[in-house]
Design goal:
Strand content: 25-35%
Shape: globular
Helix content: 10-25%
Largest sheet: 11 strands, mixed
Number of domains: 2
Number of helices: 5
Order of helices and strands: HEEEHEHEEHEEEHEE
Amino acid sequence: MRDDWAARAFIQSYIDAYTTLYGCQTGSADDLNSLQYGANFPAKLENIEIFSLESNPDQVFQKKARLSLPPREHYVLNIFHAEEETQEIEKRFEAAGFRYAFTNVVRGLQLPAPLPDRGIPVNLIVEQSQVDFVNFSHQYFQPIPDAVLSNPHVRAFYAILDGQAAGWGLLVTTAPEAAYISDMFTLPSFRGRGVAEALLAAMHETAAAEGKKYSLLVPSVMAWNYYQRFGYETLICFSIFHQVSS
């Protein structure tokens, strides 16, 4: 059975997070949603992503025509589906002129979900000096935009070890019953010391205190199996396609 509620909660949370943090533009047409990243978001091959609960290519094309998208702009297509439908979805959209990239998953955990205390302080970012403190820890880019202070439903947490910001993550509470955990990152020199677990514990506690029934996340390739040890289970898949024809 498809867990469409999880897909809807993820899409709503994801779009709210990136709109808040990077000023992205959004659009919708029935069960299609679009996100245009713009110049403020770093390192995107395509500027537009479309999220669809519809898995029929013809229907997707018809609904996409109602989205306000720049002409001739290529986009990434995210099609949500049950795990057992993956191969069929791949064949269906490749036949319609898309190149299959990979399939990702939305994983969920029922709250409350307390975790052991790892003795690592975790703070909620509430002022500019904390944003600056986290960003100073990363030599390549600023992981926490200043705009994180502007939306009470998109909040950043960071863990401290050895006087440094050792790791951070976002908690998005836009969806009615589910919180979404995003952009989890631990600096390489601090990995293996429980930083991610401490961050998860703090965000689980915050989400549960606000009445959320589930915590959702989409694991990166590096953390594909990591969250399963805490009880996260796959709720729904989404296959990612790149446009190869206009």
